[in-house]
Amino acid sequence: MKQRAHMDGDVIIAGFFPLYALATYPSNNDASAHEEYKLCIFKNYQFVLALIFAIEEINKTHDLLQNLTLGFDICNVQFGISETFKNPFICLFGKIPNYSCMSNSKSIAVLTGPSGLTSAQIGTLLDLYMFPQLTFGPFDHALSDHNKFPALYQMASKDTSIATAMVSLLLHFSWNWVGLLTLQDDSGLWILHELKEEMAKNRVCVAFELAIPNYSLSLKVMALYNQINKSSANVLIIYGDNESLLDLMICIEQYLIKGKVCIMNSQWDLTTKRTYFMLGSSHVPLIFSHHHPDVSGFTDFLKAVNPSKHPEDFFLARLWFLSFNCSDSESDCITWENCPDDASLDWLPGHIFDMTMSGHSYNIYNAVYAVAQALHEILLHQTEAQTMGNGKQTMSSPVELHPFLKNIQFQNPAGDQVILDDKRKLEAQYDILNIWTFPEGLDLEVQIGKFSPYAPHGHQLSLSENMVEWAIETTEPAHSVCSESCGPGFRKSPQEEKTVCCFDCTPCSENEIANDTDMEQCLKCPDHQYSNTERNQCLPRAANFLDYGEPLGMALVFMALSLSTLTAVVLGVFVKHHNTPIVKANNQALSYILLISLIFCFLCSLLFIGPPNTVTCFLQQTTFGVVFTVALSTILAKTVTVVLAFKATSPGRRMRWLLLSGVPNFIIPICTLIQVTLCGLWLGTSPPFIDTDAHSEHGHLIILCNKGSLTAFYCVLGYLGSLALASFTVAFLARNLPDTFNEAKFLTFSMLVFCSVWLTFLPVYHSSKGKVMVAVEVFSILASSTGLLVCIFAPKCYIILIRPDRNLLHGFQDKTWTSRNKPS
To answer: Which residues are listed as membrane-spanning (predicted)?
Structure first.
């Protein structure tokens, strides 16, 4: 019996299908293994039935080809190069074709596939005669070259979004360290580019990429065993056509590449899964298969198929013989006496024959309808042009089919749009399949998800993760990353000369946080917040300032009030004893002014304590500068008075005139006016303002007064320093002048203390932060004022209160100037 399936019709559609699987004959004597081997050789027989189903469906309808019937002629395609060319054309034309025999053939188109290589080999000869060829395998970029294959049409949708779909799956499982295995052909190079581009967009990295020549798969995989098996990448994306991937997966199984998740694009039939995925512990296959709707009536058609309905189908007869033991011996003369009457294909195990329409069978179904639609358009065109007679319409040449096939667009009975033009093809939608192989031999194909490029971004992938069967004894998804994720509180630090997926985790700096995983940069907390110890959260800072209620503030307030009270007491003593010589000595009025200014010096320190506001910020430095200027200028005036008093020994000398005219009394207003002018310029140009310090104390926000212009601040301090230096210099020169009540030595020592305090203040002030800086300034004010009070007035109070016997005029008799010349 000739190895073909045939049904006559007005127009014939030829099919060149690889109906025999490549399988190794079992070496043991297990009868069941031998029977399974016999059945596996018909693994693609569903292709034949899909073509028959479509033709019978079209012949029964009244909408297409009313005056024509379709037939079919199906031959098996061998995988050898010579057989690939020889057998189909003998089957199609009876001999190697020439122009004359092709013109006499009733065949209108040829269906080839699923291998792109086989279709290309057959298409090379068919294109010489522009014979329409429709391929039903996966979309092959090599076959889309219309200059090379002008008569070839691909039924499968373009894998435009396959890279996006696969990367979406990687992102779902947080896999960012992936190996790529492709064939070294046009499709392999195309998918490599698409995948790498899409992975780069989503920060998924390529651990290794292998483009393997399909003529040396075994040797290539063996040579790269260490690179694949020892890589930390536990996910492999494998892209290729079905036949090539079969060989590749055999190599992967044989070389025991364990623990990898294989993401593939091909539509694997159950026989393939039975043969190469029975070791569930080795690999987890996740397969992206083109989604297609269910074709109504196909399953019922398969159940009703038997050899008596299709007597010219050699392949069905052979399958029936092997499946149901219809005869005791194998021969071409097959008898059916021993066959069960109700035998049906759905009796066969799922791994032998699948009762659901495969993706390839669906493409065959669409290819038959595409040819029928094109024929229908031709007949309508002929009718409109009135080029045919009243007899039955026939096709003159298959070449006439091309203009209609190129532009064809229709909706098949399942509701899908079918377009043959590559540029107008719709994007494919994908079903994500997982193969359940445990318990061993289950071989159940389970849809675990889908991907639709037409869904809104972020909702294109839907997945039932709990339905995935991972490796044996594993219920969790595989882990495939170059570096473990950086948790909150850490940022990613790239490793030198490595991809972005390989990084170290670096703790965030102080006052910075990382509140999510795998953050590139730490986020700085706002000034009013601070980072917690874990560096994963910003906490509100507690407002802080030099407060009256805290111990330091209370101590400074107590000191300021006590010292100002003490100064007031001294002033009261001086007022009470204003007629005594020691009070009258060195200008009584200057002593009162000095004491009053010291009271204000002590009290002005209170402006630095408590919550800062605009008024206190304006008054702090200016009040401090003015009252200290009054105090220092008073001391300078007292010092000058002492010098003038002791130098004015002759009534006719100018110094005596200066002393009597009250020139020293002008020192205070002049010096004070200069300081007031400096403070006025300060307030008018860059005045102090309320500011915050978030860095001095962890967890606290220090509220303080910013000085505004540091230049103005140091000008005020510098002016005070110059007054203090002038007073110290004059007092130092007059320290040895004789007199019982000569206070030049005390003034000298007071200025020495004053300058020492403020020279110490400057470095300590600059090394302090926050409210400590304020406390240092307050303490310096109190210390320097106390130095003036103690050094100048303590000796006098001692004499007034403790040694009143020394507060007499008898000590002046031996001096060079008399009591009448004593300044009042």
So the answer is: 552-577, 589-610, 622-646, 658-683, 711-734, 746-766, 778-801
